[in-house]
Amino acid sequence: MIILGIETSCDETALALIETRDHSHDPIECRVIHSLIHSQAELHSAYGGVYPNLAKREHGKNLVPLLKKLFEESGLHTKNTVDPSSLLLSSKESMLTQNPDLYETLKGADFLKNVPSIDYIAVTEGPGLEPTLWVGIVFARFLSALWNVEIIPVNHMEGHIVGSLLQSDKPLGAWQPLKKIEFPILSLLISGGHTEIVEIDSIGSYKILGQTKDDAVGEAFDKTARLLGLPYPGGPHISRLAEEAREMEITSEVKLPRPMIGSENLDFSFSGLKTAVLYAVRKAQQADRFDDTFKKGLCREFEEAVTETLNLKIKTALQLKEFRGLIIGGGVSANRHIVNAIEKTVTEYHIPLLKPSVHISGDNALMIALAGALNPKTKMPGDIRAHGNKRLF
Ligand code: KG4
Ligand code: ZN
Fold it and tell me: H helices within 155-259, ranges in order?
């Protein structure tokens, strides 16, 4: 089964092609035919965060050229050819009002007449930014109608879960068995929009045990970075400065809170942490001490406050029942300090940690295609819509 994955939930335009094969007893095997990510981070950097309308326009401009590149570089076979002109004509009115950039690129895309040998199109339906999700969905619907291929709508967070099942050391095109997974398994999802602890009883069966009441972890990293004058996305910058602080043995004179570690539940709250950073920054500026050493120390303290909070909640969750492993996913799972702490915890509990390789810890379409392959619930194209707040269940 060959699946084309489409991801446009935030500021990455991503496309991927995977092939899976299923043997009755062994784990599913998968090969990554190709995966492309076009990041808009630099464009949004000027705004200090993602600017939804700009992101929408960029997805509209980039999807078609990215698909052309994906097909050219993957050498996929063509099944037959079709004429896109009547579909373009019937889509013209709605596309010109809602997605003019996408329409313009579709109009000039001669390569779309070649029907690729794919079985499904998996597209992110949520959660995410609704205007940007719609671009991917409208694109998927167009391709589905043109090539007569069914669509699988995918939950972005399920994508972050299954992304951890791919082996990290396999080159493009090589077959690999997916990592072994035993249920129930716990999952910690930490991204720019979400912070969730999820119980997974099988792929497709999820229960949210705890989540953030306000800011997501990645959002806290990004907002803190902004207060320190660091570029968006802030996570990698904070992490780098925190690492330097550790190497240089710089500690922070400011002690930040460890939010909600006293509460018994598995919920998080990170907005207080950002406010504490704001006060610390103001105080340092007034005292003329807002220098590199202060910033490095504060990044270290911030990273440690977040790590301790996440780790403690994971320990609490692991006591609830006999989980057979822990999956970590989402952009923040690229953070080495957090992952090292969680690795120690799973070792104490004698369970495996399944984590995505760093190049697919952030948003990508590989994880969307794989989620589509593992949980292939198709819907009629007209029923697929953007759900900005879509939950895992
Ligand atoms: O999963 P993702 O790519 O997008 C969403 O679905 O939100 O996550 C993006 C988030 C951003 O907030 C970014 O700052 C954060 O992941 N991030 C990191 C690191 N790399 C990316 N946070 C902390 N440390 C990192 N190394
Ligand atoms: Zn994400």
Answer: 156-162, 217-227, 235-247
Regarding beta strands 195-202 and 185-190, do their DSSP bridges make them parallel or antiparallel, or are they unpaired? Answer: antiparallel
Q: Consecutive 10-residue runs of the chain (393 residues): their mean pLDDT?
A: 97 97 81 96 86 95 98 94 96 93 96 97 97 98 97 98 92 92 97 96 96 96 96 96 98 92 90 95 96 98 98 96 97 98 98 95 97 93 93 86
Helices 292-318 and 336-348: crossing angle in degrees, nearest 10, is: 30
Does residue 332's CB lie within 6 angstroms of at least one atom of ligand 1?
Answer: yes
Cα–Cα distances in angstroms (integers) from residue 309 to residues 103, 192, 262, 304, 315, in the given order: 46, 17, 10, 8, 10
Quote the CA–CA distance of 55 and 60 in Å, as a whole number: 9
Rounded Cα distance, 40 and 37, in Å: 10
Instruction: Enter the tokens of residue 383.
Output: 């029923």
Residues whose CB is less than 8 angstroms from the CB of residue 97 and which lie 6 or more positions away in sequence, other chains included: none
Cβ neighbours of 2 (radius 10 Å):
20
Vertex 130 angle, CA 127 and 136, to 5°: 90
Report the SS3 class of residue 210.
strand
For residue 233, the ligand 1 atom closest to its alpha carbon is 14
Residues 296, 15: Cα–Cα separation, whole Å: 36
Rounded Cα distance, 300 and 304, in Å? 6
Pocket-testing residue among 160, 302, 332, ligand 1, by greatest number of atoms within 8 A of Cβ: 332
102: left (phi over 0), alpha (psi -120 to 50) or beta: alpha
- Dist CA 8 CA 178 (whole Å): 25
Burial of 184 (0-12, 13-18, 19+ CB in 10 A): middle
Q: How far is CA 251 from the centre of its chain?
A: 32
Distance of CA 244 to the CA centre of its chain: 27
Residues with CB under 5 A from ligand 2 (ion): 191, 363
